[in-house]
Design goal:
The complex is a heterodimer of chains A (333) and B (480). Chain A is mostly helical. Chain A is built from 14 helices and 2 strands, in the order αααααααββααααααα. In chain B, a hairpin with a 5-residue loop joins strand 2 and strand 3. Chain B has 480 residues and is of the alpha+beta class. Classes of the chains: A mainly alpha (333), B alpha+beta (480).
């Protein structure tokens, strides 16, 4: 029998879990890059990795107990990555920038997982002994389960979730204010016509770099949420294709709108969790024979949907749910 | 990656499937060093011990690994499981100090013998991680034997690199690595020309090109192992080429044809309609990413996550040339073939109508169109030939490296590096750039750990874009 209650329950639980929060933040970063500044960043996962490693290494390498310092280091790592990436490459055309950013993100991952850095980054196994100081701040009882309606989380999870959504709210406010400010208007002007903005005396390069840093820091925050939620940092999570999940979330919600990553990420996790759980139950209940597909392969099917959705959305509704086609930097040069 | 092994000693593959019968390794020191970089091979043999005059049928295993001195030493404490073909448990035991395990079976027949790879001691690896289970036929009153291959060097890891280690600098190592790099570069170039020409004629950066490479690799594997229909259980009893595998040479040819088909389908079904609708290039680029993700996970679904090897020509010993370099016949043949194909492409581009038309469309599409060239036909031709070349390059890469569901995507970034280094949109640039990247990757292992060699290539990609974004052969106007 198919346990529909369980499926809906899981879908709703995942919809606001820390994974969804991380997706919101990472997609908001891409929204700043692509939606507002027109930068085709395919390496957002590199920023996420930098944030996560900066957060974790503060505890493991520096031996610090300060979560605030860890967050600062995580942000610092993202900023440094943005500078390293942006200073040489922001003059490039959009499609070149796409290739460079994806390559840079792969460099981060390959270096982080390499054996020579094993003593620092934990090599391919990553870091997992850093969460203590963060857990100590948790006002909830880490072991017990807190529930409300269909949602129930362990105390350790709940803490991350609450911090995460507060963070999301702050970021949404910040971005809304920023994009309505003169700074935001310049950035959008550069997206629309870089030469025109330059003719008005705006330093397009400098504005683009600022946008890259801002979006990158949002990616770094996503990495910290992931590190805190998983209590582990695994380098191979930060593989290049992961970035495209954030892209799907952004395009689903609508490029260039402040709220769209929130809606996109929640929808993404609801749909994916629903499909995954329904698929598993269909297989384990015997509706689908295991010769056709087994439960471990269900998780692969979700990426078929991700790929198809990305392609089809881009062709038939590039503006997603909320966006406007006119505001998309699809002709970015 | 097996291809980074340095010069000394002929290739070791040939040893991999030779039984060690008769030399039970008694009295050999267990002094092998785990991180031996000199690739050597051990064998796990299920010996026929009918000579012992046993009444009862059983399965016998001896696990040994070759140490640096070339001695085979037993491997102790590895869990071996025997089951019936429908996976009912028969017995389980660990190898003893002689690396031996003997498990009684209820009677003659077929049994599955499984090595628990997790229990292998540090520094001992299965040569082919997918072959943890072998089928053994036990005859009445005898012991069944099967053959596993162990190695003191790790198999290809998720990144296609050998973990750890560095190769000592020597002229011989340099020559060997340059040769390996040249080979890698030729394969990359063949796969890359399609990417570069598609960009040249349409302006599209095709992120699904990695999957077009994987497509060829996987179809070559399919036909090589299963034949035309053997993947379907009820048809696997048919005689080759339907039930059993076809020779790899033919399998690769078929894979190239399939690659052309995929290129045709991608243009016909997806990108030609998108061009007609006037969908922007950035949107098309995101579409290629969607296709790439979709195809990659279809491959994972169909092929599984564990890298495998072709059935033919995997085990070959190298021949020495000039006393400097060792090349296996398969590498020599595929390398020469790809060189010939690249020369042929150059000829086509320079001297045939379609080649000139391709270059004309690359140079200036509007001008080409107004001078009577059917641009859509040229683009279709570029997709078809690019798809075939990508598949061919993928099939060759699968022979020299490993066949995996995401191998194509791993090479995509290297191909980007090569293509941009040479100049995006130019055929000759792709060739030169990929050769430089291939040689650079292999030779760099003299100076940096092998697992970081791809990082070097990607870093070069970024540096090139900063210093000379149009690449070696490109013209300045191509970039912005």
């Amino acid at each position: 029998m198919i346990d529909w209650g369980f499926i809906f329950n899981q879908s709703l639980t995942q919809a606001i879990d820390f994974n969804a929060i991380a997706f919101v933040l990472a997609a908001m970063g891409i929204n700043v890059h692509f939606g507002y500044a027109g930068l085709l960043n395919f390496g957002q996962i590199g920023f996420v990795a930098m944030g996560a490693y900066g957060f974790g290494l503060t505890f493991t390498l520096l031996g610090s107990n300060s979560v605030l310092l860890a967050v600062a280091v995580g942000i610092g790592f993202s900023v440094i990555f943005a500078l390293l990436l942006g200073i040489p490459t922001l003059r490039l055309r959009a499609d070149y920038l796409a290739i460079v950013t994806i390559a840079a993100a792969e460099i981060v991952r390959l270096v982080a997982r390499s054996t020579p850095l094993r003593d620092i980054t934990g090599g391919a196994e990553g870091l997992n002994q850093f969460i203590g100081p963060f857990r100590d701040l948790n006002p909830f009882n880490a072991g017990s389960v807190y529930g409300f309606g269909p949602w129930s989380y362990r105390g350790s999870q709940l803490f991350v979730i609450i911090i995460g959504w507060i963070l999301v709210a702050l970021v949404v406010l910040l971005i809304r204010q920023l994009m309505n400010s003169p700074w935001g208007r310049v950035v959008k002007a550069i997206r629309e016509d870089e030469d025109a903005a330059r003719a008005l005396g705006k330093n397009a390069y400098w504005y683009k770099l600022q946008a890259l840093i801002l979006g990158g820091v949002l990616g770094g925050l996503a990495g910290m949420i992931l590190a805190a939620g998983n209590a582990a940092i695994q380098p191979d999570f930060f593989s290049a294709p992961q970035t495209f999940l954030f892209w799907l979330v952004l395009i689903l919600g609508g490029v260039g709108k402040v709220w769209s990553p929130v809606v996109g990420a929640v929808l993404y996790w609801v749909i994916i969790t629903f499909i995954r759980n329904l698929g598993r139950q269909l297989v384990s209940a015997g509706y689908v024979p295991t010769t056709v597909i087994d439960t471990s392969q269900i998780d692969q099917i979700q990426f078929w949907i991700v790929g198809l959705a990305l392609a089809l959305l881009m062709v038939f509704r590039p503006q997603g749910i909320f966006g406007s086609k006119e505001e998309m930097a699809l002709d970015a040069r | 990656m097996p291809s980074v092994r340095p010069g000394p000693g002929p290739c070791v593959y040939a040893l991999a499937f030779v039984t060690g019968s008769g030399k039970c390794g008694a009295g050999v020191h267990r002094s092998w060093r785990p991180a031996a970089l000199v690739a050597s091979v051990a064998v796990l043999v299920l010996l026929p011990l009918a000579a012992l005059g046993q009444e009862e049928e059983s399965v016998f295993t001896q696990l040994r690994v070759e140490n640096e001195e070339g001695e085979r030493v037993p491997v102790e404490g590895v869990l071996i499981t025997v089951t019936t073909p429908d996976e009912a448990a028969v017995g389980q035991a660990e190898t003893d100090t002689e690396g031996i395990v003997q498990i009684a079976v209820p009677g003659p027949g077929e049994y599955l013998v499984t090595v628990d790879a997790i229990t292998l001691p540090a520094g001992v690896f299965l040569r082919d991680p997918s072959r943890t289970t072998l089928s053994v036929n036990v005859l009445p009153g005898q012991l069944g034997r099967a053959l596993f291959a162990l190695s003191p060097t790790p198999p290809v890891d998720a990144e296609g690199g050998v973990l750890g280690g560095r190769i000592n600098f020597s002229g011989r190592a340099l020559a060997q690595l340059t040769t390996e790099g040249l080979k890698l570069g030729l394969f990359l170039a063949m796969a890359a020309i399609g990417l570069s020409l598609i960009f040249g004629t349409t302006g599209l950066v095709n992120f699904a090109h990695g999957e077009m490479i994987g497509w060829g690799m996987l179809w070559a594997y399919f036909f090589n192992v299963y034949g035309f229909a053997g993947a379907f259980g009820f048809l696997s009893g048919l005689p080759p080429p339907f039930g059993g595998g076809v020779n790899l040479i033919f399998a690769i040819m078929i894979a190239a044809l399939f690659g052309a088909g995929l290129g045709y389908a991608m243009d016909k079904i997806v990108f030609a309609p998108l061009r007609r609708r006037g969908v922007s290039l950035i949107a098309q680029l995101v579409v290629t990413i969607g296709i790439s993700i979709f195809l990659r996970y279809v491959y994972l679904f169909a092929f599984g996550g564990v890298p495998r090897f072709y059935e033919d020509y995997t085990a070959q010993s190298g021949n020495e040339f000039f006393g400097l370099i060792t090349i296996t016949p398969k590498d020599l043949i595929t390398g020469t073939l790809s060189l010939l194909i690249l020369v042929a492409i150059g000829f086509v581009l320079n001297f045939t109508r379609i080649g000139k038309a391709m270059r004309a469309v690359s140079d200036n599409r509007d001008l080409a169109e107004s001078s009577g060239i059917d641009v859509q036909k040229v683009i279709r031709f570029v997709w078809v030939s690019g798809g075939a070349l990508a598949a061919l390059g993928g099939a060759f890469l699968g022979l020299s490296e490993v066949v995996g569901f995401n191998t194509g995507f791993r090479f995509l970034l290297l191909i980007f590096a090569g293509v941009i280094l040479g100049g995006l949109g130019t055929a000759y640039g792709a060739l030169i750039g990929c050769l430089i990247v291939g040689i650079g990757i292999q030779v760099s292992t003299l100076f940096i750990p092998t697992e970081l060699k791809n990082v070097g290539a990607l870093a070069v990609l970024i540096v090139v874009l900063v210093i000379r974004p149009q690449g070696i052969m490109g013209r300045r106007e191509r970039i912005g």
